[in-house]
Structure formats: C-alpha cells, structure tokens
Amino acid sequence: MRLTDFRSYHEADITLDRGITTFLGQNGQGKTNLVEAVAYASLLGSHRVATDAPLVRAGAARAIVGVEMARDDRTVLIEVEINPGRANRARINRSPVPRAREVLGLLRTVVFAPEDLALVKGDPSDRRRFIDDLLVQRAPRMSGVKSDYDRILKQRNALLKSAQAARRSGGQDVARTLEVWDEQLAAVGGELTAERVALVTHLRPHLVDAYALLAGGEQASSAADVAISYSSSLGNDVDVSSDRHVWRESLLRGIEARRREELDRGVTLVGPHRDDLLLELGGMPAKGFASHGESWSIALGLRLAGLEVLRSEGDDPVLILDDVFAELDAARRRRLTERVAGCTQVLITAAVAEDVPEQLIGRRLMVSKGSVTDA
Question: 116-153: b or e for each residue (b if 16 or more CB lie within 10 Å)?
C-alpha cells in the first residue's frame, strides 16, 4: 500500500502479509487512516465520511491511494487519484482507465467499524448504503446502474420543483414532460431494486447463522428470530420479487398513484432511494427494541453475512476490523474470533493490544504520528 497526501500521511509505503495484521497505537495516530485507504481502493468511498474532501491532507490538492494486490497467482496495481470537487482518476497496472469505477471488483473488502451501529439504530440511508456497497462488490456493473439512477432522480426532482413553481405562479404546466423521466426512473430503479431484493435473500441465512454465533447461548431463543427483509416505498402490497420487470411495472403504478402528492411537494416519493432494510429481533423492529449488545451483534452479523456472500462467490475479501474489539464484551470477542480466524487476510486496528484476542494478534505494526514500524 502506497499513500500520497492521504489523510495525515504525506507519504507511506507499507507491505502487508497474508493472515492477520494488527495496527496498534493511541487514538489520533493514523491507524484507521491506513485501513480506510485499503477500503477506499475497494469501494471508492470511505466508511467514515460521505465526501472525499476530508481524505486529502490539509494543504494538498489531491491524494493518491495505491494498492498492489495478489490474486489468482497474479498481481494487480490499483491507483486512485482523489480530486475533491473534480472527477477522480484511476489506473490499473499504471494504465489509465476511462472511469474510476473501472477498479471496482478487483479488490474486495468487508469493513466493520464503530460507525456500523448505525446499520441498526441509524437512518434508512445507512442501510441502503450497506446493501449498495455489498451489491457493487458482488457485481461491479451495479455501480453504473446506481449512478444512472442518482442522475435520473436528480433531474426528475428538478423537474418536479419546476412544475411546483409553475403551478403556483399560474405558468405552464410541465407535468406532462415527467412521463419520460417516470419511465427512466422505473426502468433503472426496477433493476436496482430487484438486485437488492435478490441480495437480501442471499444474506438472510448467513445473518441468522452469524447472529446465533455472536449472541451465544444466553440469547439462543432470540437468535433464531433475527430477520431481515426488504421494505419498499411502494408499501406492503407489492410482490417482493427479484424480477426487474415486475419492479418496473410496480414503480410506474406507484408513481402514478402519488403523482398529485409529488407535484404538490416537488420531490420524488417512490423509488429505491426511499426504501429500507427491515431488521427484526423476536418479531419486533430491532431499531428501538434491541438492546445495545443485541444491536452490536446484529450489525456485526450483517457484516459477517456480507463476508460469507462474497466468499461463496469468489476469493476471500480482505476483512477490516476497525477499532471494534473495545466495543465488544469478552464473550462476543471470543465468538468473533472463531468466525474470522480462518480468513485469508484480516486487518485490525486497536488502541490497546489487550483488546484483541491473542488468536488474532498476528503481525503487529505500531503507528505513531504517521510513522509505521514493526512492534
């Protein structure tokens, strides 16, 4: 891994091994910045911030993340140039690619971090991002589908705003021109929704297994009742299908049914941008009913379920455990260790070595003021 002007690092060049590597150091020394860079090369996004600007070192115009990975007896060099406010650029084996998203799918990662408690307790947007990030790692072409949907949604919302203003001023009614955007939104949104629904189906048994492992015997009765389902903005009447054509037709009907409300409010009210993942424990919504420990187990269970889905469809992803052991009790630490010890590569960050189970320490690297040395 080679970094230039990424976060707190002016320059960094680090060789990582197979198996487990633990980055140790006090808070604020740059541990998480390192694993964040690995994840960025995989997802073209950070698990900590929503925009790229904070990733560039203060005073620098850009940042570069380079990751050389070994896969199928060959090496691949991924380089991403992060340009806040402008299009990012990327190279594969030093050759420029037309779009940065061409690197997606080459390096796959699963990241678990303290922020993941939002998967249970946070807003629907947190859960949508979880499912979409996993979706893109499974099928990199879905990054283009998601980008197309976001573009169509933005343009349709702008038209709805114009229609709303026109109606209030008595000007020209532009509602008829919405039909073209309705069709595009339904077609692309139908594909995105169908792929999400299919992925939730794959996740479901893995989540049940992972939660049962993490919860342990003291919660065995509720472990079997953990559930995940796809919640559509169309309501409960829609057939939860993985057929994109079914979803296209359902979205068109939903748009038509809420046409007047959309025109009144000037915003798109139907589509995958308003969907959610419904997480339940013992038949009750996990958000608001699950305890703190149960919420952690569900959040970690979601990440482990994603890990198993990716493992079942290709090589092991790189598993990143970013400062999570301090949040887990001894029993959950032990159970997590049982699940991840056999992964091909695991990157761990911790402020205190004692927080990490002995079986997971592996190679130790000490991080202090942006300097990385063997401990």
Answer: bbbbbebebebbbbbbbbbbbbbebebbebbebbeebb
Q: Which of these, 223, 225, 228, 194, lies nearest to 303 by C-alpha position? A: 228
Chain centroid to Cα 117, Å, comes to: 13
CA distance 2 to 162: 47
For the chain, what is the total number of helices (H) and then of strands (E)?
11, 15
Instruction: Please give the Cα distance from 287 to 280 (Å, whole number).
Output: 8
Name the pairing type of β-strands 63-71 and 2-6: antiparallel
Q: What is residue 76's three-state secondary structure?
A: strand
What number of CA atoms fall less than 13 Å from residue 209's CA on the CB side? 14
Q: What beta strand segments (E) does 134-275 contain?
A: 227-231
**pTM (whole model) above 0.90:** yes
204's tokens? 């479901």
Torsion over CA: 100, 192, 195, 277 (sign): positive
Instruction: Return the biggest CA–CA distance within the chain.
Output: 72
Please tell me the distance from the alpha carbon of residue 127 to that of residue 120, in angstroms, as a whole number. Answer: 8
Phi, psi of 304, rounded to the nearest 5 degrees: -65, -35
Contact indicator for 1, 318 with CB cutoff of 8 Å: no
pLDDT tens-place values along the chain, 375 residues long: 999 999 999 999 999 999 999 999 999 999 999 999 999 999 999 999 989 999 999 999 999 999 999 987 889 999 999 999 899 999 999 999 999 999 999 999 999 999 999 999 999 999 999 999 999 999 999 999 999 999 999 999 999 988 877 666 554 566 677 889 999 999 999 999 999 999 999 999 999 999 998 887 544 444 458 999 999 998 865 566 678 999 999 999 999 999 889 988 999 999 999 999 999 999 999 998 999 889 999 999 999 999 999 999 878 899 999 999 888 888 888 888 988 888 999 999 999 988 899 888 789 999 998 899 998
* Element spanning 285, H or E: strand 284-285
Residue recorded with tokens 């991002």: 129
Q: How far apart, in whole angstroms, are the C-alpha atoms of residue 70 and residue 91?
A: 16
Residue 194 CA to residue 254 CA, distance in Å, equals 16
In three-state form (DSSP H/G/I as H, E/B as E, the rest C), the secondary structure along 25-42 is CCCCCCHHHHHHHHHHHH
